[in-house]
Protein: Phosphoglycerate mutase
Amino acid sequence: MQLHLIRHGQTNWNEEKRIQGQSDSILTELGVSQARALGERLREIDYAAHYSSSSVRTRQTTEHAFPAASDVRFRDELREIYLGPWEGNLYADMAEREPDSYKHFWEQPHLFAVQGAESFHDLQRRAVAAVAEIAAAHAGERVALVSHGALIKSYLCHVEGRPLDRFWEPPTMHNCCHSIVEVAADGSAKIVQYADEPVG
Structure:
C-alpha cells in the first residue's frame, strides 16, 4: 500500500511559537491557504481512505485539503506528542524555566523525560502501531493520513532506521509537507518522498 503522510497547516500557536502537543490550536489564514493548495496538488490522486488525527488543526486541514472526502476516519492515536505541563506555554519561556529538559527536547530527544508528558520513544511506538493497523486494513491501496510533525517524523525515523538522538535532523517537517511511504505486504516500508522531496 502507499501511505501519504501530511502535516497540518500553520496554526495560531505555530505563529506565536507556543507549544501545542495535544492541546487544540486553529489554522491561521495562511494555514487554510496551505491546506487548500496541498489539496489542489493532490486532487488527481484517488485515495481509498482518509485518516486524520482527531485534533482541531488536523480536522481543519483535512477539511480544506480534501473537501469532497466523506470517509474521513478520525483517530486519537494519530495526535501529536503529548507534552502535558508544557502545552500552552511559549517555547522561549520553557527554555528559561526548564533548560535541561528543553535542551533534551531539541538536541537529545532520546533523553527527553518530563513528568506527565510522553517521551519520544512512547510517541514512536504509538505512531508505528497506528500506521501498522492502517496498512493492514488497506493492503494494495493508497491512503491519505493527516497528522502532526513529530508523530510523522517519528514514524519516518522508524522506517529509515534513524535513531531518536538524530530525530530533528533534516528534512524539516514544515506545515502541510507531504511524505509518501510504500508499505509491502510483509510490513516492510520504504520512503519515496520526504517532506515534499523525492527520495532515492
Q: What stands out?
A: The domain at 2-198 is CATH 3.40.50.1240 (Rossmann fold). The first strand starts at residue 2 and ends at 7. The chain has a mean pLDDT of 97.
